[in-house]
Amino acid sequence: MKKAWILALAGSLAACGQPADTPADGGGSTPAPLESEAPGADMPDSEPIASPYEVTESAPDDTDYAALAGYPDTWYVSYGWPGEYPAGFVVLEQGVTVNGRARPNPDAPANVACTLPQYANYQIWNRKRVEHDHLEFIVASKIEPVVMQVDANIETPGDEGMQVLELKAGDVLSYLRYLGEGFAIFRVNGQEYTINEAELRDISSMSAVSLEEDQWVEVACIGGKRAWLLYDDAIAQDDIVPSPIVGFGEASDIYPDEVDKVRAEGLELEAFQNGALDEGTDE
């Protein structure tokens, strides 16, 4: 899963991607704005959403993302990108244009030409960018069955504390989406529960689950249009790379003098990601 390669690189890259030392004259103290397309330096800082649970619970009540995306019933669409260190991407050069979509569905035509602001970091922890551009992050995950092999009692957090699910051999759980820190959302008898994957790994078919997911973000394009971008499409662009890992819950637009470093780190992260996915496919 995505969490494996993210955590593997988190330690080695945590010290990288930090803002360069601020010159004595104050130059470079904020990421360079691109006309009116970047958040202003005077925009107040926002509290980061550090937990994947908080992210999913912060979904707007007035938006039905499943209906908006229009995926088949065999997929689960929900708010927020998964992972202890959620993915993201950075625009390194000026004038980068991505073909986005009017709706977050891979079958929708990619006919919305969307030029993105240079130095922008589209990562859910970059709250200044998220709030300035009214970014929306959703994930569509293919639902996978998990079959219990033995009887077991599984703990899961509820509104009134921990509760116990009494599961029997042969019961089928539906794996809906990964959250973070080993926890995922499962559907059991029509109800959704947060369960630690480790509790199921040796007593069910959990280890055979292969997670397939599409991560989407709705962005503000230069010129006023909005478009939905698929993460995989975005990082396929030459001048867009995965966001650097700088610390838990921390993200911001990058500095002009960080472009070369962020490009190198992003390409390393992308290569590591692709290698991990290839290994998972071979198993």
Explain the overall architecture:
- With 283 residues, the protein is α+β, with helices and mostly antiparallel strands.
- The chain folds into two domains: 189 residues, no CATH class; 67 residues, SH3 type barrels (Roll), CATH 2.30.30.
- It has seven helices and 15 strands.
- The strands form five sheets. Strands 1-6-13-14 form a four-stranded antiparallel beta sheet. Strands 7-10-11-12 form a four-stranded antiparallel beta sheet.
- The chain is elongated and about 60 Å long.
- The two termini are 13 Å apart.
- The N terminus is likely disordered.
Brief overview, please?
With about 280 residues, this protein is an alpha+beta fold. The chain is about 25% helix and about 30% strand. α1 runs antiparallel to α7.
**How helical, in percent, are the residues?**
10-25%
* Rounded radius of gyration (Å): 20 Å
Listing every helix as H and every strand as E from the N terminus to the C terminus, the arrangement reads: HHHEEEEEHEEEEEEEHEEHEH
Placed side by side, the strands forming the largest sheet appear as 1-6-13-14
What amount of the residues lies in strands? 25-35%
| Form type | elongated
Largest sheet: 4 strands, antiparallel
Multimer state: single chain
> How much is the average pLDDT?
82
Please give the domain count. Answer: 2
Q: Structural class of the secondary structure composition?
A: alpha+beta
How many H/I helices? 7
Compute the number of strand runs. 15
Kindly report how far apart the N and C termini lie: 13 Å
Low-pLDDT residue spans: 1-29
